[in-house]
Amino acid sequence: MHRTKHDILSLQVVLIGLILAGCAELKKDLPPPSSPLTVHGEGWEDPASSNFHGKAIRNAKWDMSQCKTCHGRLYDGGVVNVSCRTCHALPGGPENCTTCHGGTNAAPPNDIAGNTSRSAPGVGAHQKHLVGGAISAGSACSECHTVPPSLYSPGHVDSELPAEVPMNGYIATTVTNETPTTDHDAGLPLFSPQPEFDASSISCANTYCHGNFKNGNTAFSPVWNDSSGSQMACGTCHGDVTKATLAGRALPKSVAEGGTHPDSTACSNCHGDVVNSSLVIIDKAKHINGKLNVSGEERDF
Q1: β pairing state of 297-299 and 292-294
Q2: Domain range annotation of the chain
Q3: pLDDT tens digits, residue range 43-75?
Q4: What is the average pLDDT value for the chain, to the nearest integer?
């Protein structure tokens, strides 16, 4: 059948009209243009929401591999062009240590449950150990226990709570009374700490830094989340907490007590770079550092 140019033009107009009418009907079922496309649901960025992404990741046992599918291997945008690193700006992005625990540094508070109180096992004495206090300049995390090199390293997020705490750091395992040292005492054994953490009692034992050294109190097991301050008394690590005076409590094991330390409470006479005559630590960097400081000289003991 022969169609004129006018007929073809008329047919095109009719088809365009039908298409536009269909689009108009379809548009009724679509969200309005002002409604953004939401993948995760309401509250994903709100810490107070039950749908907060931090809670979802915790429920997924910290597995963020699916996040990378959309946001990229480095969480910097990916196929959706939405970067997680706008908020998680520290090295590693969401996998930075402080994302899950810590704040100003990588140690709690906060712990992974958001606790900030020292009485919480996940918080405990982390800051006292890391930053230090009246008797210590602090220690790096690795000086006490294994620090996982990455989020998914064995022993980190691959098991249920409580956390595994392999205490194999330099300070925790400092060996004393070795044969070649200047201060070796043949009448005493080698003190080679085998530190361990007991999750049931929330305590550690057999560490150099809490008494397992020559002339120290080898049986002391400090409770990790105790906040009374009693565990930093001189006598807990060396001396005797039951003695009446501070000088007596600070005195390491004398010969009468099965040790080899001189029976003198004038600590500053020999250890004046570390402590003064009032038994106040004056150089925290030289205390609990794996060395014996005698007459201004630091040495293995």
Answers
A1: antiparallel
A2: 43-95
A3: 999 999 999 999 999 999 999 999 999 999 999
A4: 88
